[in-house]
Design a protein that fits this description.
CATH topology of the largest domain: hpI Integrase, Chain A
CATH architecture of the largest domain: Orthogonal Bundle
Largest sheet: 3 strands, antiparallel
CATH superfamily of the largest domain: Intergrase catalytic core
Radius of gyration: 23 Å
Number of domains: 2
Strand content: 5-15%
Number of strands: 3
Strand order of the largest sheet: 1-2-3
CATH class of the largest domain: Mainly Alpha
Number of helices: 10
Distance between the termini: 55 Å
């Protein structure tokens, strides 16, 4: 797809060209580009998609953002960020003298609290997982590994994808440290793979997390993957399987307000692990 970017193109035309160029460049995750596409088609296109570049003004952008803000602050913010990035591209291509998003409606993030978990709440989580484990279930390997995954998330302050990407070579049980250096990605049509982080970090583990990993290491056969939490087929587990499993556990226990991200901010004085 190679067309000159000119001022008489519509916003939708430029969106198609920009998304195609991003995919061809290969510098962004396909999941990120897919999200850009969704924002442009679902949020931006219906309002200003048919507008020509040389007719698009800051007032048009303000009207778009104001309308989205009536529905969702998050949609409003995403639309401004993605449309702004796309029109920066149009400016660089010489199709615009200035980006009409710059100087448009200012969007501030509402102040949010960052909830943490108390020891009592963690005890309820432990019990919920124990009860769930006693129920006969079929399904992916994450069902069996859920307690250990949660425990490592708590001990290492790590995200689900970071825990699922752990290899035994990332863990030093002698010094009780763990290298968080990758995460798990499953782009549509591309399979599940381990993606290195741009900024790895070394984490000191609590004693009970190190003991748990030591026990797990003793019963885990060696494999080429070297994964701490592999699937039955010796592949990387998918993040959405673990998230789905946790949603089921918390629903059954009446803990629907507790998200996996909260495990990373839990109190350090925790009850005994699972």
């Amino acid at each position: 797809m190679s067309i000159p970017i000119t001022p008489n193109l519509t916003v939708n035309d430029v969106a198609d060209y920009w998304l195609h160029k991003l995919r061809a460049d290969g510098r962004l995750e396909s999941t990120t580009i897919n999200e850009y596409q969704r924002v442009l088609r679902a949020l931006v296109g219906p309002e200003v998609g048919s507008q020509r570049l040389d007719e698009l003004t800051t007032e048009h952008v303000d009207e778009l953002l104001a309308a989205l803000g009536q529905r969702s602050r998050n949609r409003q913010r995403k639309a401004k960020v993605v449309l702004g990035a796309m029109l920066d591209f149009a400016v660089n291509e010489g199709a615009l003298e200035r980006n009409p998003v710059r100087g448009s409606l200012s969007i501030s993030r509402p102040a949010t609290s960052r909830p943490t978990l108390t020891a009592a709440q963690m005890a309820r989580i432990h019990e919920a997982v124990r009860v769930s484990h006693r129920k006969p279930r079929s399904g992916p390997r994450s069902s069996e590994d859920m307690s250990d995954i949660i425990e490592v998330m708590l001990g290492a302050g790590a995200r689900i994808g970071e825990v699922l990407a752990l290899r035994w070579s990332d863990i030093d049980l002698d010094t009780t440290t763990i290298s968080i250096n990758a995460t798990i990605k499953t782009p549509p049509g591309e399979g599940t793979y381990r993606k290195p982080l741009s900024q790895p970090r070394l984490v000191a583990l609590p004693e009970y997390t190190a003991l748990l990993l030591g026990r797990r290491r003793r019963v885990t056969p060696d494999s080429l993957l070297d994964a701490v939490f592999p699937t039955r087929n010796e592949t990387w587990q998918q993040v959405n399987n673990v998230e789905r499993r946790w949603r089921q556990i918390r629903r059954e226990a009446g803990l629907e307000w507790i998200t996996p991200d909260m495990f990373r901010r839990a109190v350090t004085d925790l009850p005994e692990p699972f």
